[in-house]
């Protein structure tokens, strides 16, 4: 049986930061990721792309980690866009209604296009 893991890579660009998540964003696996997100430096004018293309599963703890990070980002008036390519993970975002607070796209190019425009979502992260 495969060992479940969770990982986070940060890639800094000029105007945005890509947070590349992989594995299983689940309880007991993400404590280290939560600490890294809590200490992520914010630079004015830098948005965040959360790349979930290598995520296999996410539970309520994983969603909580993302929503808490998004609240910090919204306080800085920056944007978050999420890349999801897996249909199962996309359905989990719909079930949790996180698809109502985050723009969800299928590529970095699409995420950049969203960042460049004003983003209006069905729910604000603070109303979630």
Question: How would you portray this structure in words?
Answer:
The chain is built from 4 helices and 5 strands. It has 128 residues and is α/β, with parallel strands linked by helices. The protein has a single domain (6-115), classed as STAS domain (Transcription Regulator spoIIAA, 2-Layer Sandwich), CATH 3.30.750. It has a 5-stranded mixed sheet with strand order 1-2-3-4-5, sandwiched between helices. Helix 1 links the parallel strand 2 (16-25) and strand 3. The radius of gyration is 14 Å and the shape is globular. The mean pLDDT is 93.
Describe the structure concisely.
The chain has one domain: 2-Layer Sandwich (Transcription Regulator spoIIAA), CATH 3.30.750. The protein is of the alpha/beta class and 128 residues long.
Stretches where pLDDT is under 50 for at least 5 consecutive residues are none
Structural class: alpha/beta
* CATH topology call: Transcription Regulator spoIIAA
Taken from the alpha-carbon principal axes, the silhouette is globular
CATH class membership: Alpha Beta
Q: What's the number of domains?
A: 1
Query: What's the CATH architecture?
Result: 2-Layer Sandwich
DSSP strand tally: 5
In percent, how helical is the residue content? 25-40%
Straight-line N-to-C gap: 36 Å
Task: Summarize the helix and strand pattern as letters.
Answer: EEHEHEHEH
| Rg calc | 14 Å
Main sheet, how many strands, which sense, barrel?
A: 5 strands, mixed
Approximately what portion of the residues adopt beta-strand conformation? 25-35%
CATH homology group: STAS domain
Mean residue pLDDT: 93
Q: Tell me the strand order in the biggest sheet.
A: 1-2-3-4-5
The helix count comes to 4
């Amino acid at each position: 049986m495969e060992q479940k893991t969770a990982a986070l890579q940060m890639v800094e660009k000029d105007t945005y930061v890509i947070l590349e998540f992989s594995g299983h964003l689940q309880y007991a696996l993400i404590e280290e990721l939560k600490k890294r997100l809590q200490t992520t430096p914010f630079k004015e004018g830098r948005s965040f792309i959360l790349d979930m293309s290598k995520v296999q599963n996410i539970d309520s703890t994983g969603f909580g980690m993302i929503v808490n990070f998004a609240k910090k980002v919204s306080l800085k008036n920056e944007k978050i866009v999420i890349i999801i390519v897996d249909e199962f993970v996309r359905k989990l975002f719909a079930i949790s209604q996180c698809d109502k607070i985050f723009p969800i796209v299928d590529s970095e190019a699409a995420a950049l296009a969203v960042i460049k425009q004003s983003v209006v979502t069905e729910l604000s992260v603070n109303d979630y």
